[in-house]
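Hi P.,

Sorry for the delay on this. The queue was packed all week, but I finally got your sequence through. Input first:
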Amino acid sequence: MHNKEIRVPSPEHPITIERNDKRVVVSISGRIVADSRSVLILKEAKYPPVLYIPRKDVNMSLLESTDHSTYCPYKGDCSYFSIPVGGNKSVNAVWTYESPYESVAAIEGHLAFYRDRVDSIEEKAA
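Then the structure:
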């Protein structure tokens, strides 16, 4: 097994993490999966910004851990959850970096949701 490449954000591949001043509510099949006023926005290179929600503001009883995993040389090993009430579209709908690399350490303990695998991710005035 080869060692995983670790990369550090740079001007060519910038990553910024800042606080979102809005309240974020994630829902699926009529259920609120997350409701938080402590959301982080991670902006990476040319990718769309990603909202990271603290685990304490997510209804973890609606999530089911899966065996799916991926690796990002900038952030580390990534684990996934499905949302059973959402059916097939919500398989591996949620991801998290349990032990993110130092440059993105702020997202530890946070979860992110694929917009197309939940019914809505609403940002409301706080």
